[in-house]
Specification:
The chain is α+β, with helices and mostly antiparallel strands. The protein has a single domain, classed as Pantoate--beta-alanine Ligase, Chain: A,domain 2, CATH 3.30.1300. It is 45% helix and 20% strand. Strands 1-2-3 form a 3-stranded antiparallel β-sheet. A hairpin with an 8-residue loop joins strand 1 and strand 2. The radius of gyration is 35 Å and the shape is rod-shaped.
Length: 155
């Protein structure tokens, strides 16, 4: 007598909601989404980094110009000439939309000092390289001593 093998039992089918979860966990297309999110964020960070570098350069330039203006003012023989010399020495700053130079000559006497404050308004277009609206103001102050043995004009 030949025996017939019992019918093989098939595993039960998973419920439909289980199949939907498997489809949601599929990784196809995730790389495109990651790139679509990462590229704009990377570009924004790069622009921010460039703007921060240019802002740092502008800070250094304004401080250097204030120091040069104070030095030029300290070499002048009169308070009026000191103000003129300080203003002329700031003419090299090209990135400023507006530039203000304030010269304090109240202690302009042998052994005294002269203080120069330079304020520069920089367009964010200059910092970022494209048409971003707005402006930033950078201020630097520098003081230079006057020589004790130097003659000055009487006021």
């Amino acid at each position: 007598m030949t025996s017939t093998p019992p019918l093989a039992r098939q595993p039960p089918r998973p419920p439909r909601h289980h199949l939907l979860g498997a489809r949601l966990r599929d990784d196809r297309g995730s790389t495109a989404v990651e790139i679509a999110l990462a590229v704009p964020i990377g570009i924004a960070l790069l622009v921010l980094l460039i703007a921060a570098g240019r802002y740092s350069t502008a800070l250094i330039e304004v401080q250097s110009t204030a120091s040069a203006a104070a030095r030029a003012a300290s070499l002048a023989r009169s308070p009026g000439a000191a103000t003129t010399a300080a203003a002329q020495s700031t003419a090299t700053m090209t990135d400023c939309a507006t530039r203000t130079v304030r010269v304090d000559t109240t202690a302009f006497r042998p052994g005294g000092q002269v203080t120069v404050e330079v304020t520069c308004t920089i367009s964010t277009r200059t910092l970022t390289g494209f048409g971003a609206p707005g402006a930033l103001t950078v201020t630097a102050t520098s003081t230079s001593p006057l020589d004790v043995y130097r003659t000055t004009e009487l006021p």
